[in-house]
Design goal:
Helices cover about 60% and strands about 10% of the residues. It has four helices and five strands, in the order αββββααβα. A five-stranded antiparallel beta sheet has the order 4-3-2-1-5. α1 packs antiparallel against α2, α1 runs antiparallel to α4 and α3 runs antiparallel to α4. The longest helix is centred in the last third of the chain and has 33 residues.
Length: about 180
């Protein structure tokens, strides 16, 4: 018996690849981490005497059990930090919605580039806010006790890292990576 082998092989490339699904999951995780970071009460803490969030700054005198709190929206650098972080979060939300709608509608490959651009812009905004925050905090707040940047600040960095990962995954061209699917 002779078998005939066709010289051409039909390759069908779908607009949806596992890389894009992982990218969508990264964007969703970045969005969740951003919400946690913005709502976090602990960006800086100091030995049960001081804590700072994006919204409020509280301290407790050593001789007292009462906390004294002020809004953080009175200083320019804290407003700038919040604005940059919220701007990045808005871009992440918009890119997530565009990616999700394009996944459901079926116009996937046309939306990959805008999603990636929005995510890279969000990374730049959030990285600027996360670099600005500790520099200006150390420059303006003089604490005489040990203080540390806490989990709220870490969540914001996690969001930035997941956004960067999602942006890279949305930049990858599925035609060049046939082994992944």
């Amino acid at each position: 018996m002779a078998s005939s082998v066709s010289g051409t092989e039909e390759v069908r490339v779908s607009g949806l690849t596992p890389l894009k699904l992982v990218g969508l999951v990264c964007v969703f995780l970045a969005l969740c981490l951003d919400v946690g970071a913005v709502l976090s009460p602990a960006w800086v803490t100091a030995d049960d005497q001081y804590f700072l969030s994006l919204w409020v700054s509280c301290w407790k005198p050593v001789s007292s059990d009462n906390w004294s709190c002020n809004t953080t929206l009175a200083t320019d650098w804290q407003i700038a930090t919040l604005a940059l972080l919220l701007g990045g979060a808005a871009l992440i939300l918009l890119s997530f919605l565009v990616a999700l709608v394009s996944l459901c509608v079926g116009s996937r490959s046309r939306c990959y580039k805008p999603v990636a651009v929005m995510l890279f812009a969000a990374v730049v905004l959030q990285a600027c806010s996360l670099v600005l925050f500790p520099i200006k905090f150390i420059e303006t707040v003089s604490l005489r006790v040990y203080h540390e940047f806490n989990w709220g600040y870490g969540l914001a960095w996690g969001s930035t890292i997941f956004s960067f990962g999602g942006a890279i995954l949305y930049c990858l061209n599925p035609k060049n990576y046939e082994d992944y699917y």
